[in-house]
Amino acid sequence: MEEEFRYDIGWQQSSSGALNENYGFSKGLELIPAQRVEIIVSPPPYIAHGSTEQDGFGDVSFLLKYRLLAGNEEHGNYILTAFLGASTPTGQYKNGTQDATITPAVAAGKGFGNFDVQSTFGATLPTGDTDIIGRTLAWNTAFQYRVDRIFWPEVEVNSSFFIDGPNDGKKQTFITPGLVVGRIHLWHRLGLSIGGGFQIATTEYHKNNHNGILSVRFPF
After folding, report:
1. Among 13, 8, 16, which Cα is nearest to 58's?
2. What confidence tens digit (pLDDT) does each residue in 31-56 have?
3. How far is Cα 89 from Cα 119, in angstroms, rounded to an integer?
4. What domains are defined for the chain?
5. pLDDT in tens, 94-105
6. Which residues pair with 82 in a beta bridge?
7. Sign of CA dihedral 211, 30, 83, 86
8. Closest by Cα among 199, 207, 68 to 136
9. In 13-145, which ranges are continuous DSSP H helix?
10. Which of 45, 67, 138, 149 is the most exposed place for a label (fewest CB within 10 A)?
11. Hey, is 146 helix, strand or coil?
């Protein structure tokens, strides 16, 4: 948990070969109003399609984090956090969902010297039209290793399990090798972290493949 502004960009290649660009990726301002609480307010991302679909802004989303347990390097080097996210159907030209969604999740992490493992499990639950939108269970696990203080090569496994809706019973998994550089000190408490990765689909069913991800963070 830390206070920062985060801006992500994603490039997703659909099964038809069209390259879609997501500017913002539902990230934004992260604040800590209380000792165990973090609030994230994400302005709508802008989605540009490499096809005949109309470009436009996506949904506004919010995320609440509550730190359940934590220990520094001298006391176990671990963390356990609960999440509750929500999105509102503000997207233009079908660039968002047609109903609001609620996303409960739990995340855990453990460090072993320069190596750490972080895992998140959650569900995206629409408030209506479930037979059209469907429900999604998401399980993400990242393995990181610190090199020379600020370099963090990593591999992330992202799996989605679809329930109800048009993709009922299907599963898609991505392997994402990447690199994070940071935290770099800029001025007083302001820092900079930059990360990038490349998603590769490993399941027969996948909505997109060979996706690029860029993340820029300004912790303060």
Report:
1. 8
2. 999 999 999 999 999 999 988 889 99
3. 28
4. 4-219 (2.40.160.40)
5. 899 999 999 999
6. 66, 106
7. negative
8. 207
9. 130-133
10. 149
11. coil
